[in-house]
Specification:
193 residues, mainly alpha, Leucine-rich Repeat Variant, ULK4 kinase, kinase, ARM-type_fold, transferase, ARM-like
Length: 193
């Protein structure tokens, strides 16, 4: 496993206030929802040109920096942002954006302490599995997508283990384990993009 490169975002081109994790946690619900709505709108925008794609990547870099805070990660994971990230994973035209979305998802999964049952984690696992399978010969893409898949699987296992009477809230398709095992057999080195 290789150490990920440090993430830096450009404050001047962020298009939203670059609140710290502490500031995000102290926000009132209305301000938090407005902030999330801004992020989701920016992520939903179409990358019509390289400037728009760079702006979206910059926003994803910012999300990487705040996703390492446990309470912020848990809050973001349970918000409307997570389905938007899943949509970007599926529909983004740029593989750079898909790779950074996968990194944000992986960081959220790594740092989330409590996972609500309504979070569409299964959908994220299905899309990551499909993307890895479709691009199996591209080792660089696999190295970007596999950590997020692994973190989501670990998060689900950890959450199920915490419950007294675990029940399957999140369905993990057999294909996810098959793809993961195949990658491990072939000796793919993992790192976050």
């Amino acid at each position: 496993i290789m150490k990920p490169m440090p993430v830096r975002f450009d404050l001047k081109t962020l298009h939203i206030p670059a609140h710290s994790a502490e500031k995000l946690l102290s926000m009132k619900d209305m301000d938090w929802n407005d902030f999330l709505q801004q992020i989701c709108s920016l992520l939903d925008s179409v990358e019509k040109n390289t400037g728009a794609a760079r702006s979206k990547l910059n926003l994803l870099y910012y999300l990487c920096t705040v996703a390492v805070h446990k309470e912020v990660a848990s809050r973001l994971m349970s918000s409307q942002l997570f389905p938007v990230l899943i949509q970007q994973l599926r529909a983004a035209t740029s593989w750079d954006i898909r790779a950074k979305v996968a990194r944000v998802i992986g960081l959220l999964a790594l740092h989330t302490s409590e996972l609500r049952e309504n979070v569409p984690v299964s959908e994220a696992i299905i899309i990551l599995t499909e993307l890895i399978r479709e691009n199996f010969r591209n080792s660089k893409l696999k190295q970007c997508l596999l950590p997020a898949l692994g973190e989501l699987l670990y998060l689900i296992a950890n959450q199920e283990g915490k419950k007294e009477h675990p029940r399957e809230c999140w369905v993990v398709p057999l294909a996810a384990y098959t793809v993961l095992m195949r990658c491990l057999r072939e000796g793919v080195r993992l790192f976050h993009c």
